[in-house]
Specification:
This protein is mainly alpha-helical and 261 residues long. Helix content is 84%, strand content 0%. The protein has eight helices and no strands.
């Protein structure tokens, strides 16, 4: 049953996003064609306009994705749809897990679409040489293995940060909708406040540990290997902790009862 719930939630979240994906792909193709010609003044202006459209569409995809995740959670758990949701032969844990898993899968799909479209637009001999040069600089400073670990750690931190942002909103919704009035407003306030509070603690913890590791700059402006390790490991650990905290506390509060409108 959990699989079916995930499928329904995933399709609902992405129903509008599929249109965004097609639009982004079309813009990427147009931008690639425009940039393939010699840049006259007219084509340069067109290039800037289409580039702006591409960036705006990519950002809109992420924002719309997160907003639909939160909207799905509210409508399916607390609004009119909730009367059907809570009569299904499923537990609140399954309902909650479905929302979280489908949200992460949806964010992953959106990220994949943006990455593919970005490769269509920007991947050429120049960017490949630039990427190789940057990676070579990392290897010169840290060695091949540590350079690879740095890139992996950076990607992991970005993923954990996006999940953290999404879960902050879910936590705000669960807390806010336990009230009898001004539920949406309280959800927004709690979500933003908890996000800012934990983000501040993250900066303090990572900054303090980096300072404890005697932050130094080596060749080409890179921090020392020991400092980099401390920053990466502490960031990953802290974000995992916040993500798990949001997840388990939100699920616990949901299991205590739902105040359906």
């Amino acid at each position: 049953m959990l699989g079916k719930l995930i499928k329904y939630d995933f399709n609902w979240i992405n129903k509008i996003l599929y249109v965004y994906y097609i639009i982004l792909f079309i813009i990427a193709i147009v931008l690639k064609i425009v940039e393939s010609f010699d840049q006259t003044l007219f084509l340069l202006i067109v290039d800037k306009i289409v580039s702006g459209m591409y960036i705006a569409c990519a950002i809109s995809i992420i924002i719309t994705n997160v907003m639909r995740v939160w909207s799905r959670f509210i409508s399916n758990v607390y609004k009119d749809e909730s009367y059907l949701t809570h009569t299904l032969p499923v537990t609140k844990n399954q309902i909650f897990n479905s929302k979280i898993i489908s949200s992460i899968l949806s964010l992953g799909l959106s990220s994949l679409v943006i990455i593919v479209c970005s490769l269509i637009v920007y991947l050429n001999s120049t960017t490949i040489d630039m990427i190789k040069m940057m990676y070579q600089s990392l290897m010169d400073v840290y060695g091949s293995l540590n350079a690879l670990l740095f890139i992996t750690g950076f990607v992991l931190i970005v993923i954990l940060e996006v999940i953290y942002f999404m879960l902050a909103g879910v936590f705000g919704i669960v807390v806010g909708y336990r009230s009898n009035n001004n539920k949406l407003l309280k959800s927004i306030i709690v979500g933003i406040a908890s996000y800012m509070f934990f983000s501040t603690i993250t900066l303090v913890v990572v900054g303090s540990l980096s300072k404890f590791a005697k932050f130094d700059i080596v060749a080409e402006g890179f921090p020392t290997l020991s400092t980099l390790r401390v920053m990466m490991i502490s960031s990953v650990v802290v974000y995992i902790f916040w993500d798990l905290l949001y997840y388990f506390v939100s699920k616990y509060l949901l299991n205590k009862g739902v105040n359906v409108e």
